[in-house]
């Protein structure tokens, strides 16, 4: 009875829930099989193994994250888009810590190329940054700056790493303002035609 309706999508959705409840590192085939009331082997008809499950979970969570970011930045540009992007990123990371952790794993480049979630993430992120007049290789450098800043801040905040009396939201707002200034005055490596 528990096996009825079992599919790769259901398993990945359950993995996302488990990741938020118990942590991404605790998402295992055994834990999921237990959740569905089946043996581990039953999951292998839907997945190739743990690495496949974690990759699918990363893409699933990445899709959720970019949906949230996309809705937040719609119709915005420049500093407003950056603040909306940053706010949506942070909210997702704090609300879904296990799913967010899944988005940080390294995914095989061949899977990234065929992933609509990853393509959409690149389109939205690079689109926002192009409003600052950036082109390659500056775009890649700017994406790395944003990702490392957002990730570092969210990881520290989630771990309770900010002990000073200063309001965490106020510090976040100041960090986003500093990123806006950095993007506005980016030390360009390429020649713009504008």
What does this structure look like?
InterPro entries: Homeodomain-like_sf (IPR009057), HTH_TetR (IPR001647), MT1864/Rv1816-like_C (IPR025996), Tet_transcr_reg_TetR-rel_C_sf (IPR036271). This is Transcriptional regulator. With 194 residues, the chain is mostly helical. The protein has helices at residues 8-22, 29-36, 40-43, 50-73, 78-95, 97-102, 109-113, 116-130, 138-158, 168-184.
Task: Summarize the helices and strands and which ones pair or pack.
Elements: H1 8-22, H2 29-36, H3 40-43, H4 50-73, H5 78-95, H6 97-102, H7 109-113, H8 116-130, H9 138-158, H10 168-184
Helix pairs in contact: 1-4, 4-5, 4-8, 5-9, 5-10, 9-10
Poorly predicted regions are: none
First-residue to last-residue Cα separation: 64 Å
What is the β-strand count? 0
Q: Which class of secondary structure composition applies to the elements?
A: mainly alpha
Helix content estimate: 55-70%
Strand content: under 5%
Largest sheet: none
Q: What's the rounded overall pLDDT mean?
A: 92
Q: Which outline best applies?
A: globular
């Amino acid at each position: 009875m528990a096996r009825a309706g079992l599919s790769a999508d259901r398993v990945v959705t359950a993995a996302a829930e488990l990741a938020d409840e118990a942590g991404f590192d605790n998402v295992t085939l055994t834990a999921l099989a237990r959740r569905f009331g089946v043996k581990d082997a039953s999951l292998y008809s839907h997945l190739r193994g743990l690495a496949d499950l974690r990759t699918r979970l990363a893409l699933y969570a990445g899709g959720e994250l970019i949906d949230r970011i996309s809705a937040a930045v719609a119709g915005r540009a420049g500093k407003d888009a950056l603040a909306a992007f940053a706010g949506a990123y942070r909210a997702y990371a704090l609300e879904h810590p296990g799913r967010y952790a899944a988005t940080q794993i390294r995914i095989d480049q061949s899977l990234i190329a065929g992933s609509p979630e990853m393509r959409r993430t690149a389109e939205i992120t690079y689109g926002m940054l192009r409003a600052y007049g950036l082109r390659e290789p500056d775009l890649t450098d700017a994406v790395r700056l944003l990702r490392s800043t957002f990730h570092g801040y969210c990881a520290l905040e989630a771990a309770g790493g900010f002990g000073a009396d200063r309001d965490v939201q106020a510090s976040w707002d100041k960090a986003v303002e500093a990123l806006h200034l950095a993007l506005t005055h980016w030390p360009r490596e390429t020649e713009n035609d504008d």
